[in-house]
Hints:
This protein has a single domain (4-36, 86-205), classed as Rossmann fold (3-Layer(aba) Sandwich), CATH 3.40.50.1820. It contains eight helices and four strands, in the order ααααβαβαβαβα. The protein is α/β, with parallel strands linked by helices and 211 residues long. It starts with a helix and ends in an 8-residue tail after the last helix. Strands 1-2-3-4 form a four-stranded parallel beta sheet, sandwiched between helices.
Amino acid sequence: MQDGGDVFVSLRIDEIAKPLIASEQIEPLIIVMISIGGTLNDRFDEYTPTRDASGKGGKADFYGRMLVEELKPFIDSEYRTRTDAANTGLGGFSLGGLASLYLGLKHPTVFGKLAVMSPSVWWDNKLIVRNVKALASKPATRIWLDIGTDEGPTQVGGVKDLRDALVKKAWILNSDLMYFEAKGGRHDLASFAKRTGPMLKYLFAQPPNGQ
């Protein structure tokens, strides 16, 4: 998960996941919480694929290489993991959601499950929507996409455009694409936390008979 500090301290994703695992609503999983470099500018740099007019951003590909070539191999070597894409996810909210979808689509043989929560679709005039439209073929990627209804018309409209672009590329709603609008949801950690449980249950549902 991107924004590791916020995910652990504010979202308390571990406290959300543990009872779901215990009740067998989701399969046992390892959640790796990845912190940003340290500053807001680092966050813009690491989570966006292009630079903006002020010179911020544009290092998502470098960040992605670190995940694919360094972090994931380390996790797989240290823990008992299922290493295939179908059992490996990437997720985040806001800019972290943008980065998760961008990198997930760039590395579909590594990441097969994506949690795209209130993504910053607006970045670079909806670059991520254009990227989806430009896909040569649809990867076997399972996507959770959400937005809060009170996040503002630009944010909500952008996420709906992204949803529609994914559907046109053959993702199927309520199958390998789950789109969720949180009524009254805002662009804040409290709202993201409320959607974390449903996201985990969709992406990491316990297989039949625990297989």
